[in-house]
Fold ClpXP protease specificity-enhancing factor.
Amino acid sequence: MTSNKPYFMRALYEWILDNNCTPYIVVDATLPFVEVPEQFITEGKIILNILPSATHNLYLGDEWITFSARFSGVSEEINIPIGAVVAIYAQENGEGMGFETEALPEDYFDETIIKIPSKTTHHKPQLNIIETEIDSAEQEEIKKAPIASKEKSIKDTRSTSQKKEDPKKNKKPTLTIIK
């Protein structure tokens, strides 16, 4: 069964916003893969305002919280594994919920690496066998009298190609002089 922590996070986030309060999250910045501005970490933790107007491209996913925000006027990309979130609460009244933290396994990214085909890999051109629209009776005829059928097929090809050509295209262009 998957973790219920991201679901509680999203529900509390919506609840805090619906009550016109400011959602804050407390993050354990000592855990691996937490990417936050180090100068704002206090005692191994950082408190982040995740109000929509304070963040850009906020994503509260099942495994990650990501967004960008300005810290002292400098834009920073924030990436936090859900397991590193200690609490979410409303800044105005402290209402919210605390969570146990858990670190992502060290090989987390080894399992999630997606192999992308190399651009240098080229497939050589191949020839494919294309079946003709000749029925079995005609195939037998070709096997029995290959020369006669070849002549017949050449004649058939010529007659069909002549039918498809537009007779106006074969005429040479003419120039008429008007005095």
The chain has a mean pLDDT of 81. The two ends are 94 Å apart (CA to CA). Residues 118 and 124 are 15 Å apart (CA to CA). Helices lie at 5-18, 108-112, 136-144, 146-164, 167-170.
